[in-house]
Amino acid sequence: MHLLSILVLHGPNLNLLGQREPGIYGSLTLDEINRLLQAEAKKLQAKLTILQSNHEGILVDAIHGCLEQHQGILINAGAYTHTSVALRDAIAAVNLPTVEVHLSNIYRREDFRHHSYIAPVVIGQISGFGVQSYLLGLQALTHHLSLS
Ligand code: CA2
Fold it and tell me: Does the beta carbon of 33 sit less than 6 angstroms from any atom of ligand 1?
């Protein structure tokens, strides 16, 4: 059985999940989300490597390291979604199928969250479904990879 290898990236402040702002981001911790992702990955015959970082360059390095290691990327870039040309360029450079996810619906929130620098270089975006955004994103990515 051939397992798909996927890099899951969580951006800045997502390590605080479950501890603050449960009204916006839900009450699950990042560890709980990661466990749900691992369970979903098992069903989808995928192997996940998961990283959270509060540092833009670490996320960029992880994306560069994808080549030869992983077939796709699932990313919640957090606030870097709205600021980072560097992350966008890294995703474009490795040219691996990438799905962007957000817990909250970024289009229902402040104007500055309505623009994503990475949206134009990903295959799709899922926003607003809490932890389901991640699980749906993983399903969409594995489906896409199984066709290619
Ligand atoms: O909705 C999402 O998933 C976001 O990517 C979350 C980012 C935000 O900047 C994006 O606009 C949308 C923020 C993550 C911060 O997570 C926290 C968790 C608990 C307490 C405080 C922040």
Answer: no
pTM: 0.97
Ligand 1 mean position, distance from CA 102 (Å): 8
Express each pLDDT in 98-144 by its tens digit. Answer: 999 999 999 999 999 999 999 999 999 999 999 999 999 999 999 99
Taking 3-state DSSP, the helix, strand and coil percentages for the chain, each rounded to the nearest 5, stand at: 50, 20, 35
Please tell me the residue having the least CA distance from ligand 1 atom 5: 78
**4-147 sits in which CATH class?**
alpha beta
124-127, strands of its sheet edge to edge: 46-52, 4-10, 72-76, 98-102, 124-127
Ligand 1: which residue has its CA nearest to atom 4? 78
